[in-house]
């Protein structure tokens, strides 16, 4: 399977958004239909769809659903409904900046075309959601091209969580350089962190890489240091849910631990993220809101308790990795190196 074979897990069909239910993978491949913005917010909140770019694409279609299925009788009324839908969608998961970026773009598009009649505005908003999805897929391929050169020829890569096609419009961020290097005949081998507690690595990344024919070894999160010390990891590539002005990032819980281990073993630590994930409004990672999820996701796996009854558990869904632990940030516009404070602004042409 080549990089031309992308996952179509987000698509529009007959005035509804169809999403592959990622909670059921790899055992089942089931799609759900979202008919309202509330349906989309629920799908995001419950992790039917996850991954910052994929959440952004889904939220854009959530806004489009308000236009296609709402009861507004004027363009002005529709814009009011879109503003309310934006608040609903933005609240569904607070850490990933792509969500608010996409809903803001949809709302700004509506306001820019407020003079259009209702039918025209509905069409424009759906076209904008389609554009966001198409741009995300193009972004993935560009990140892959820029990042491929950073993978050593030996190509033993460690990744965390799922920053593949399921987390984007269809190819991935962290997995895109790996997929492209593999397609070009490079001897790539991927260590896949299982990524507790939601097991995105074990359930999703391993599934994607297997489909693509990329050699992989699944490891538990606490095995990473073992393989690094043995010299079996050449680089680490992870995604990001938010990159702030000084280059700090928020990503799936456990990313910070990997970055510390990588520095201790002198292993390059790369972050792959689209420019839409860059949030220059926050000065550093301490300002990033960290989502706290249900502790039952730690206490239970597959509906079965793995801890004694009455045990409490913490579940921060993300952690913050300081910029000084990051070797480079791979974007669709190019690779950004320190000093991030200056170079992130340059890549955004600000």
- Along the chain, the helix and strand elements come as EEEHHHHHEHEHEHEEEHEEHEEEEEH
DSSP helix fraction: 40-55%
Q: Quickly count the domains.
A: 2
Strand order of the largest sheet: 6-5-4-7-10-15-16
> What multimeric state do the chains show?
single chain
CATH topology of the largest domain: Rossmann fold
Q: Beta-strand level of the residues, as a percent range?
A: 15-25%
Helix/strand/pairing category: alpha/beta
Question: By CATH's scheme, which homologous superfamily of the largest domain applies?
Answer: Translation initiation factor eif-2b, domain 2
> Can you tell me the CATH architecture of the largest domain?
3-Layer(aba) Sandwich
Mean residue pLDDT: 95
Strand count: 16
Radius of gyration: 20 Å
Biggest sheet features: 7 strands, mixed
